[in-house]
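Ticket reopened. Same input as before:
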Amino acid sequence: MSILGIADPLRFIFDIGGFFIIYSMLSISMNLDYGFAGIPNLGKVMYFAVGAIVTGSLSLRIISEISGIPLGDFVTQNISYSITAGNWLSHHPIEAVGISLSLIGLSSLISGFVGILSSLPAIRLKETYLAITLLVSGELVRVISSYYAPLVGGTVGAHVPDFFSWVGVGRIHDLFLLAYLAAFMVASYIASRLLVMSPFGRIMRAHRDNEEALMSLGKDPVYVRGSTLFVSSAIAGAAGSLYAIYSGNVNAGDFVPDKTFILSLIIVIGGMANVNGPLVGSLIYIVIDRVVRQAKFFLNVPFDVNYLSIGIMGVILLLFFFFRPKGILPEKPIVIARNKKLKNVSE
Amino acid sequence: MPLANLLTNAFTYSNMLVLMALGLTFSYITLKVPNFAQGDFIAVGAYVAYTSYVLWDIHPYLTIPLSFHVSGAISLLMFLFVFSPLSKRGFKLTELMIAYFAAEMIIRSALLIYTDYMQSSLSKYFSNILIPVGQVEIGGYEISSPLLASFILLLTILVSFLIILKYTKLGIALRAVIQNPELGRVYGVNVEKMYAISWFLAGGITGMTGPVILTFFPTDPNIGWTFLIRIFAASIVGGIDSMLGAVIGGYFVGMSEVLGIYVLSQPPIGLQPVYRVVIPFVLMIAALLIMPRGIASKLEGISFRRERK
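Engineering reply: fixed in the latest deploy. New output:
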């Protein structure tokens, strides 16, 4: 069975589903920073990388501590040990879920603190300088972690064991993994929705629209930036950890600034400062990306089609900027109707 | 002699950084947003030189004027068709930065496709390329060609800019527009035209470094990102909106990186040379915290800065 060069349609849906979930979480995080609070976070990939690196470097070490099976040298042994660990996890479902949950929690916490840390230069820096600092910090994290082998295996990368080997193999396993990922995405979507509708969400938008007015009302912009970055980075860190668990491999070299750009593209397509924007944007991005990748089975061109994809994304973003700068779902005033009278007034 | 080699490296590298930072300054002073595509002009310039070298066996340094015009033209087209319309529509700084990012990806994608295509059709390497040019003998001393080329290039650019900016009508108009666009407009200067010239120079000057980089540093289409951190660091340390700042910053960052990593990789510390990118980063952060407007802002009255609130 083969549709459009896809050997196994279910497998294809599983692939798309996983990436959709991870990109949605990352763009929800980007939307909180950039869409709602107006922080030019061009280093978003850094928090994603931090989450993935924490999970990639700790998963096998923690399993080795708990199971008592010696790991040996992490850099050379992590590939073979990830299979050993997978086998051990297949007999210990409770440990598997516990370890994966604590890894995700830890990753998102560490990433959140990196977020607070990176809001510190923002105390003094203006928009452009802050964006440059964040962008360059992201590159620095990538360069250092891809050279420093004991962290996540250097340029070769580190493997993460299969935390769902106890479910079985094949489709039921994939379904379980996808459901696990989806639960985190739904949680972060609800969290972002609640945050945006809360009084703090109002302060975030005020911070974006007019910082001086915010200060005149006795709110501290430094505090707003710090808390926003903590929440958004925690979501991005969880996404990084889920990515490591989902793909089973962390390679620090993957966290290039292009990823941040893709996230900006997603929220520009979906609609900036609209809670549903990231979901719509991610879906459209993933469909376009997969279509371009499938195109290589039909087009006979003397170059790698993936290179074309980079350029197409750039063109799409510029087209949106020119013809639909507010995205597919434009920002709407948020109406919090506590009682019917207020709702009637707003209508 | 290792010391001579080290100094040769440090000076060649710093000269290149000065030119790149000068390019960034020229695009920054127009829309007040740092251009992420700046690094890609190096790759454009380098591939112009490499293509002529492979196809017609032309020495890379002879294609410097061509590299200047090709990358300048790309920069100008970007300004005329993307950034100028966007800024007129009232796009804010961050949105412009994202648009720069998009333009950078389009250029890089085109370069990657071009190199892939050339590599498969000519069956010659188009990635990770380096053309060794050896040394020239001047007065009994062996001097590396990239060093000499970079010095000549830098001096030519600096001297011609000093003359143009000080003594020609065009230069005075350009300075006026940079310092105060509104007043320039009142005096009948075509601000839009001056901005376009500035963007052409921004792309051109950075693109010129491509052929020299090609003989000095392994080049591939992603080289823009390798240098972007250094360009930003040099510009910010020196002062992003000043030409003098580009010279100071380029030398400061270039020298600190090459000499600094040499010292740090020696026995007492023994750091691996791959971590050299940390040096410009640390310098940049320090500059942002101590003097965000750069060293040049401390040297009042020398640079052509635009006064800001």
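The first strand of chain B starts at residue 135 and ends at 138. Chain B is about 70% helix and 5% strand. Please confirm and we'll close it.
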